[in-house]
Amino acid sequence: MTKILLIEDEEPIRRVLTRILTDQNTDFDIIEAEDGKIGFDLLSKGNFDLVLCDIKMPKMDGIEVLKKSKEAGLFLPFIMLTGHGNVDTAVDAMKYGAYDFISKPPDLNRLLNSISHALENKSLRKENKILKRKVEQKYKIIGKSKAIGCNPNDR
Q1: In angstroms, rounded to a whole number, what is the distance separating the alpha carbons of residues 48 and 42?
Q2: First vs last C-alpha separation in the chain
Q3: What was the pLDDT predicted at 17?
Q4: What is the mean pLDDT of residues 41-51?
Q5: Residue 79 in 3-state DSSP?
Q6: Is residue 76 over pLDDT 60?
Q7: In terms of C-beta density within 10 A (0-12 exposed, 13-18 middle, 19 or more buried), how is residue 80 classed?
Q8: Contact 22/28 with Cβ under 8 angstroms?
Q9: Are the C-beta atoms of residues 85 and 66 closer than 8 Å to each other?
């Protein structure tokens, strides 16, 4: 299952997005949060693959959730949603590491494509890290000598 956290303060929008996403892909497990604080708490405890996050919310706005997530070392794709989009907000979201910025009401095809690409990108990054570790282990230098640039007396 692909776990998606939907952080949105408007219940009708949460309901519609959850239904659309689960109808489009039965592999999606959508967890809902009605404000940024609850969303960040869930993020801190859960293992999510993607976050769909509104920007304007009570208690903690979406940009704060994004920033705090990055500071906490939670590097997962954030797709920011807003009904009050402007260029400055979009630039801020992208500067703090958002994967995409989509105006509400979202164009369904654009949202689904963005989700698909973000999940694929996350998967490729994970695979890349695994492969790098394997290569590092295979060619790891064991020992110390002058010939490889180490002082044998530094043990």
Answers
A1: 9
A2: 48
A3: 94
A4: 92
A5: strand
A6: yes
A7: buried
A8: yes
A9: no
Average pLDDT of the chain, as a whole number: 87
Whole-number percent of the chain with pLDDT over 90:
52
Q: Is 142 exposed, middle or buried (0-12, 13-18, 19+ CB in 10 A)?
A: exposed
Tokens of 144: 């110390």
Model pTM score: 0.80
How many whole angstroms separate alpha carbon 110 and alpha carbon 103? 10
Structure tokens at 57: 């919310």
Tracing tokens 């920033």 back to the chain, one arrives at 67
CA gap 65, 37 in Å, rounded: 8
- Boundaries of every domain in the chain: 2-148
Tokens found for residue 105: 């009401």
Q: Which CATH number fits domain 2-148: 3.40.50.150, 3.30.70.20, 3.40.50.2300, 3.30.470.20?
A: 3.40.50.2300
